[in-house]
Specification:
homotetramer, about 350 residues, 9-stranded mixed beta sheet, 6-stranded parallel beta sheet, NAD(P)-bd_dom_sf (chains A, B, C, D)
Chain lengths: ~350, ~350, ~350, ~350
Amino acid sequence: MTPTPNASEPIGIAVIGAGYWGPNLVRNFQASTRFRLRWLCDLDVERARRVLGGYSTVQVTADLDEVLADPRVQAVAIATPAGTHLTVALAALRAGKHVLVEKPLAATYDEGRRLVEEADARGLTLMCDHTYCYTPAVLRIRELLHSGELGELHFLDSVRINLGLVQRDIDVLWDLAPHDLSILDFVLPPGVTPVAVAAHGADGIGAGRACVAYLTLQLSNGAIAHIHVNWLSPVKIRTAIFGGSKRTLVWDDLNPSQRLAIYDRGVDVASPDELGDEQRRDILISYRSGDMVAPALTEREALRTMVDEYARAITTGTPALTDGRSGLRVLELLQTASRSLTEGGTMIKLNEGRMA
Amino acid sequence: MTPTPNASEPIGIAVIGAGYWGPNLVRNFQASTRFRLRWLCDLDVERARRVLGGYSTVQVTADLDEVLADPRVQAVAIATPAGTHLTVALAALRAGKHVLVEKPLAATYDEGRRLVEEADARGLTLMCDHTYCYTPAVLRIRELLHSGELGELHFLDSVRINLGLVQRDIDVLWDLAPHDLSILDFVLPPGVTPVAVAAHGADGIGAGRACVAYLTLQLSNGAIAHIHVNWLSPVKIRTAIFGGSKRTLVWDDLNPSQRLAIYDRGVDVASPDELGDEQRRDILISYRSGDMVAPALTEREALRTMVDEYARAITTGTPALTDGRSGLRVLELLQTASRSLTEGGTMIKLNEGRMA
Amino acid sequence: MTPTPNASEPIGIAVIGAGYWGPNLVRNFQASTRFRLRWLCDLDVERARRVLGGYSTVQVTADLDEVLADPRVQAVAIATPAGTHLTVALAALRAGKHVLVEKPLAATYDEGRRLVEEADARGLTLMCDHTYCYTPAVLRIRELLHSGELGELHFLDSVRINLGLVQRDIDVLWDLAPHDLSILDFVLPPGVTPVAVAAHGADGIGAGRACVAYLTLQLSNGAIAHIHVNWLSPVKIRTAIFGGSKRTLVWDDLNPSQRLAIYDRGVDVASPDELGDEQRRDILISYRSGDMVAPALTEREALRTMVDEYARAITTGTPALTDGRSGLRVLELLQTASRSLTEGGTMIKLNEGRMA
Amino acid sequence: MTPTPNASEPIGIAVIGAGYWGPNLVRNFQASTRFRLRWLCDLDVERARRVLGGYSTVQVTADLDEVLADPRVQAVAIATPAGTHLTVALAALRAGKHVLVEKPLAATYDEGRRLVEEADARGLTLMCDHTYCYTPAVLRIRELLHSGELGELHFLDSVRINLGLVQRDIDVLWDLAPHDLSILDFVLPPGVTPVAVAAHGADGIGAGRACVAYLTLQLSNGAIAHIHVNWLSPVKIRTAIFGGSKRTLVWDDLNPSQRLAIYDRGVDVASPDELGDEQRRDILISYRSGDMVAPALTEREALRTMVDEYARAITTGTPALTDGRSGLRVLELLQTASRSLTEGGTMIKLNEGRMA
C-alpha cells in the first residue's frame, strides 16, 4: 500500500478525466505546493494533451492501470461521468490510492456505499468534490449557523436556474441539485437533518427528462428547505435565503460585491412554551426592522481550498469536511427525490436505518 | 332595481370598508370621471373620516343599510375582511347594486358561488378586484401569451416574498397566493387550465399558520406552474418567469425601469412528432442565444384601469375581465391548495365538474 | 401683521401655484394637523379645481390679493415658476405672511437676498422647500457627517440623470443641480464650505441650453465635490458617494431596500503631519476591507417632514433647517456655476464677502 | 532582420515582465496556435518561474539581450512599468522584433513618438495592448457608432471607480483613464476627434497624487465626453453611457447578463437647419419612449482577441486596430489632461499639428 505522505513533501496526484471539470482540477493541483501532478489520464489522449497545452511537463495517458501502477502516485482525483465512478474509484482504492471524486459520489446510493466501505476498510481518504462548500460564502454560512448567530433555522429557499446544457443521461435534479443538497448537508448545525423529501418537475420541451424541478425537504427541527433547479431560464439566478430565528441571511452568488447579506430584520413571536394552547392563535407577534450587514469575504477560489482540504485529510488521516459519507447522504436525498418525482410528488421519508 | 347607468353620466358609487385597501379605492373612484363617490361606509366612522381627511364632501356612515337605501348609489366596492364578503355583497346585490369585491371573492368556494349565482340571477355586474391583472405589465403578458408570441407555455415560476404582516385569520397562502393565482387565471391562453395542485408549507416561527408556502400546479398542456409565497423574507422579491417554446419572459415588478424582459434565448428541440420512440432519448437539442427586449410600458396605476373596467362592465352589461367567475376559479385553487397543505403536499386534482 | 400662531391651533395656509409641484404641497398640508389649508391659488382656476378634485372644501382663486387679504391665512407656500418668486413672496411677506418657496429660492442671488432681508426685517419665517433634505436618507447622512462617524469628507460624487423634461426657460443645471447643491449645503459639517466652482456642459441636441452638465466644487477642507446632471439619459440614476476618512457612504435613492450603504472599507494613510516632506511620496498606504452596513431607515415622505419643519419654524420663530439663507447659498453656487459654464469651465472662487 | 513570419507557422514570442499583467499575456500566448512562447523575461527570475509554475517548458531569463539575440523570437510583448517602455521597446525594435506594449505606450508623448517612428522606419509592427478595445462589448459599440445605428454622438459619460491600489509613481488619471481614453479613441466614428480637455482632481487622503479625477473632453462635433476615475470608491462601477441622436447605449461591464443595453428612448428635436435663428429658443422637442434591446454578445476573453490581432498585424504587415499611433493619441490626451490638472482645471486645446 502506498504510504501516507508526510506534510513536508508533496503528494503525488493523478487527475482522471479531461472533460468539463478535469481542467479545473489540473490547474488547481498544479498551483498547490501540497501536490505534485504526475498524470492526466483520459480515454481520449488528444483531449488530455489539449487540456495541458503545449508547454507542459505533465504526463498523459489513456491507461488507468499505468497511472495506478506508478508508485509516485499516492492520490487520484476522478472527474469522469458519474456512471464510471464506482469502477474507477474502486480500482484506485484497491491500488492503495486516496480518492477524490467529482460530485455526485456515484451513480446510485448502493454504489456510493461500496466506495465508502472500501475506503474505510483500507484506511484511505475518500473525499467528494462538493466544490461550493469551499467557497468563502458557504464556509461563512456554516459558521453562522453552527455558532447560532442566525438562531434556529426556520426555512431555506435555494434557487439555481440558468440556461443550462440539457444533459444526455441525467435530469436537471441530478445535474444541479447535488450543489444545493451538499451545501445543505454542509451548513446544517449538528442535530438538524432532513427527514423527508418531495419533488415536482416538468419536461416542458420534450427532452425526455425533467428540465425544471422543485424539491421540498422537511428537516428534523420542523423547518422547510426548498430547492428550485431549472435548465430553461434565460436569466441566471443563484440565490439562497436562510431564515433564522435571530437573523436572516441572503446569499447571492452572482453579486461579487455583496454575496452575503445578514438582516437583523424579521418577525418575533413570544415563545410557544410560555403560552397556553388557547393563546397559540392570538400569539404576540412583533416586527423587527434592523440593519443589514454584508460581511467582507476573502476572495479565494473554492477549488484551491478544496485541494488544501484534500491534502489535510490525506496527511492527517482524518475525514475531509466533505468526505465519502457526506457524498452518500447527498446520494440518498437525490435518489429519494427522484422516486418522489416519478410518484407525482409524494413526500417520502428518508430511510432512518441508513448507513451514513 | 337600480337602472343600469348610461355612459354619459357618472355612476353613483359607495366604498364599503375604510381599512387597508379602502383608501386606495376612495382615491381612485374620486379621480374617475365615470364614477361619483357618494359614501364611505365603515363600522368605525372615525376611521372613515380620517381616510377622507378634513376637506372632503363625501358622506360617511357606519350603516350599510343607509348606503344601500340611497337611490343615487348604483354600485358598491367592498373592501371588508373576506369573512364578511358574502353578507355584504349579498345585501348589495339584493338591493340591486352592482358589486366589486376585494380579493378573495369570498371566504370559501361555496360562498363565492352563491354570489355569482345571485348576480347572474339579477343581471348585475359582479367583479373581483384582482388588481395586479390591471397593471400594464400583466396586461402585456396576457397579450404575449394569447397572441402566441411566447409560443406555448412550458413553465411559470412566481416568487412573492417579503417581510409581510402575519395575518390573524389567514395563512400566507390565502394572503398572497390570490395575486399569483388570479394572474395565472388571467394570462393563460384559452384552453390551458390548471388540472391539479399541491402545496407545501411551514410555520417556522410558531405563528399557528403557514408563513412560507410553495404551490405546484399542473396545467392541462403538461406545463408546470410554481408559486412561492413567504412572509418571513427580509428581502422583497416579486418576480415571475414565463417560459415559452418561442421566448421566455421575466417580470420583475420591483424594477420600474425594466419590468418586463423578453428573451429570445432558450432551448430548441426537434418536434417529438417527427421522431420515433427510439429517438426520443437522443433527441436533437440546440441552444438559441438571442437578444433581450425590454418593451416600453405605459406607467398607469392599475387601480385606475380596474375602475375603468368596472364602469365598462356596468354600462355595457358584459362581464368584467376579472368577473365573479374568475374570482371563483381562484377560490377553487386556494381551497384545493389548502387541502393539500394539510394533507402533507399531495397533488390533488381539481374538480372537473365545477361550475365556473 | 398676522400674529404668530401658537402650537395648539393649526396654521392657516394657502398654496400658490397648481402646476407640477403644487399638488404635492396641497396633499401634504391637508394631511398635516399643524396646518389648515384655506386656499389654492393659480392664474388658471380650472387647473386649481382639477388639482383639488370634485370633492374638496378648499377654496380656489386666481387672485393672490384675495388670499393675502384673508386674515385666516398666516402662511403661504409658493410653487410658481422661479421667475415669479420675488414678486409673489415679497407681496406675501409684506402682507405679514410666513413664506415657504419651492426651490430655487429666486431667479437670481440678488432677488433671493431681497427676500431674506425682507423676512429678516419683518421677523417672518422664510423657508426654502429643499425637499430632498428631509428624506430619511439625507437626514441620516447629515447625522453621520456631523457626528464624525464617516470621518473627514474627502470627496462627494453625485449623479442625477434621467430622461428629463427639457425646460423652456432654464438649463439642466438650474433644473436639477439645486437638489444636489442643497443637499451638499445641508450635510456638510460646520466649518466645511464650498470655496470655488467650475462647470462644463453641452447641448448635444440643439435645445438652446445645456442638457448635460458637470459641476466641480472645491471645499474649504481640500475635498472635491462633483455633480453630474443630465436630461438625456435613458436610464435613471440617483446615486451619491460620500468618501470619508473613516468610512464611505453610498446613497442610492432608487434602491428602496438599501438606500444607504456604509462601507468600512477604504484606504488608510499615515497622517501627513507625522511625516517629513521627503517621506510624502513614499507614504505608507494600507487597505481596509471591512463589512458594509445598510442601516434601517424609517420610510416617511420627505414633504411631510418638511411641512412639520415649516410649522416648527413658524411657531418657535427660529430658522428652518432649510431657511432663506440656505436657499441663498444654493443660488450663489448656481449663479457662479452658470458663469463658469459660459466661460468654458473656469474654476471661479465664491465671493467671500457674501451675505449668507 | 527577423523575417516576417507567414501564417502557417507560429510566431516566436517572448513576454518581458512577469508582474501584474505579464501572467495574463503568458496564458494567452500559450493558448494561441498563432504564437509559440519562447521566453518569459523578468529581472526577478524567481518571480518569472513562479508565474510559469512547476510544470512548464518555457525558458526563463533576467537578460533581455539573451531574448533579443534568440533568432526563434520574432516578436515581444512588453509588460514592464511604463517608465521602461522606451528602453525595452526600442531595444526590441532595433533587434528587428515586432513589439506589443502594455498601456500606456510610453511614459510621455515624446517617448511614444520615438517608438512609432522607429517602428515605421523599420517596417515593424508596433501595437498597444488596449485590452478593453477587444472586449465583445467595445467591439459592438464601435460597430454601432461607425454604422450610424446610434446616430450622431451627443455625449459620453464613463465611470471607472473602485477601491484601487494607490500607485507609487502615477496618479489615478494615468492609472485608469488610459482605459477610457483608448476606448474613446477606438469607438469614435471617422471624423470625430477630441479637440480640448480639462481635468479636475483631488488627493483627499494625502497620498501625494490625485486619487479622484474627472476629465472633460470637447469633441470636434460639439459633443462632450466625461470620465470619472477614482481609487477610493468602496463600490466598483464600470459604466459608460453613449448618448446618440437616434439611440442611447448603456454599457455596464459588471453585468455579464446584460453588458449592453440600447435604448430607443430619448429626446427628439426638429433639425436646427430647418429653423430660423429666432425659432432656436422655441425649438420643438418631443420625447420618445421606446423599447430597450440588450444584444446577445459572445463571451470571449478580450486578451485572446488582442493576441489574434497582434498575429494578424504581424503576418499581413498592416497596422493593428490599436497600433502605436492610437497609443500616441491616448498619450497626448493623458499628458494634456495632466497639465490641466496642475493648472486648476483649465480647458486646454489639443495640439492640432500633432504627429499621430
